[in-house]
Write a structure and sequence with these properties.
388 residues, alpha/beta, FAD/NAD(P)-binding domain, D-Amino Acid Oxidase, Chain A, domain 2, 2 domains, seven-stranded mixed β-sheet, five-stranded parallel β-sheet, 13 helices, 36% helix, globular, binds flavin-adenine dinucleotide
Length: 388
């Protein structure tokens, strides 16, 4: 039994109001448990939310169901977003996953729309916006003191790090760090159907991936009429900086992007020309070592990318959402024994993250292999026939 907060409600602090942190906060509220989310952004509109996510029945959709958001999700989700075409660098379509209307299981939803839905389950009083955590101090009697960039301080009995891949809380539990995998560039085509109808038609209602030669050129439609074009390159962590891609001399950046795809079919590389001038955002893709775990400690745990950052192949947000459901359930079931709740949650999470992290690593490596298009088309072909 945890005795540190026997005579009062435990103070639960969630650092990070991303997808995982909001699911956890919403679920705790549903169980009647008070918690506060400390989020560095000043509000949901503070930054661009990024592309779309396909939510899986056993994880992301389960979380929405448990939050009472299943109907709202069905209204907002785009089943046609599951449509996926796989091409090789010569522009040949090697695979086409196009579920019959009503038969798909993983509809897409825009990330911003999803966060807005989740916010409807978190009371205003539980959100503390504009709180950028910069330090954590251990309290002598157990628990932690959080220190924020604005100089404010908050004490808590249970600290949950839901603060993403570069978590400030993770070092309290493990020395493991994310490792570099690839460089990633994202560009946008706004109002694609009106402004770039040929490109919009080529991309179709969902997404396409053209793969080969350690490169990946992707395009994905969002619900707001935007198409996001992505370029993934198997390269070291200094590559992006050395390329000096930028938004000031757009013609130069476009020419350098074309250099990457010099021998690719022009029908594919036209995607680059269609992108909005100045829309490039570059980042490195990283992942935590598969199988990362730590000896459970009272008063602190992690969820989502903070715990198990995975390559972006379609599981990270789903697993963060499931973490939120399961951690809230463990807290609710264990009465005031938060130590037992954390240990029970972590036992399941470590095993699940190891299995899914290994699958994701395999998928990421397949996506950047020399014969990636053939392998990916075969994989999706099998997945489609297994689902039938
Ligand atoms: C290009 C790309 C495509 C992806 N596609 C998919 C996909 O299709 N499907 C899928 O399931 N996953 C996908 N992912 C992964 C997914 O985005 C993440 O796994 C998911 O967002 C993790 O949720 P989270 O809540 O753990 O972290 P985040 O969503 O990163 O949220 C962390 C929150 O913590 C806040 N924060 C960070 N530091 C601090 C601090 N010091 N103080 C206070 N607040 C802080 C941040 O502002 C943020 O709001 C993709 C990732 C990338 C990069």
């Amino acid at each position: 039994m945890n005795t540190t907060h026997r005579n009062r409600e435990p103070r639960i602090a969630i650092v990070g109001g991303g997808i995982g942190g909001l699911v956890l906060a919403g679920m705790l509220h549903r169980y009647g448990i008070t918690a506060t989310v400390y989020e560095r952004d000043t509000g949901l509109a503070a930054r661009e939310q990024g592309g779309t996510l396909d939510l899986h029945p056993e994880s992301g959709q389960r979380a929405l169901d448990e939050l009472g958001l299943a109907d709202a999700f069905r209204t907002e989700a785009r089943p046609e977003g599951e449509n996926l075409r796989i091409l090789d660098p010569a522009g040949r379509t090697l695979g086409h996953h196009a579920p019959e209307p009503g038969s798909g299981t993983r509809p897409e939803i825009d990330r911003g729309v999803l966060r807005k839905l989740l916010m409807t389950r978190v009371p205003d009083t539980a959100m503390s916006w504009g709180r950028h955590l910069t330090g954590v101090e251990e309290l002598p009697g157990g628990g932690y003191r959080l220190v924020f960039a604005d100089g404010s301080r908050v004490d808590c009995d249970l600290l949950i790090g839901a603060d993403g891949g570069h978590s400030h809380i993770r070092p309290l539990l493990t020395d493991a760090r994310p490792a570099h995998l690839a460089a990633y560039l994202q560009l946008t085509i706004t109002d694609a159907d009106q402004r770039r109808p040929r490109t919009a038609d080529f991309v179709g209602p969902g997404s396409l991936m053209a793969l080969g030669n350690n490169l990946n050129l992707g395009a994905q439609r969002s619900g707001d009429g935007t198409i996001r074009v992505s370029v993934t390159v198997r390269a070291d962590d200094g590559w992006l900086r050395r390329q000096r891609f930028g938004n000031t001399d757009w013609a130069w950046t476009v020419a350098r992007l074309h250099d990457l795809f010099a021998d690719w079919d022009p029908g594919l590389t036209e995607l680059i020309d269609a992108c909005d001038a100045g829309s490039l955002v570059g980042r490195n893709i990283e992942a935590m070592p598969v199988g990362t775990r730590w000896p459970s400690r009272p008063h602190v745990t992690l969820l989502g990318d903070a715990a198990h950052l995975m390559p972006p192949v379609g599981e990270g947000a789903n697993q963060a959402m499931l973490d939120g459901v399961l951690l809230a359930g463990a807290i609710a079931e264990s009465g005031d024994d938060l130590v037992a709740a954390v240990a029970a949650y972590e036992t399941e999470m470590f095993d699940r993250a190891e299995t899914i992290g290994a699958d994701s690593a395999q998928m990421e490596s397949m996506g950047l292999a020399p014969d990636a298009a053939e392998r990916m088309a075969a994989f999706f072909g099998q997945a489609v026939s297994r689902a039938r």
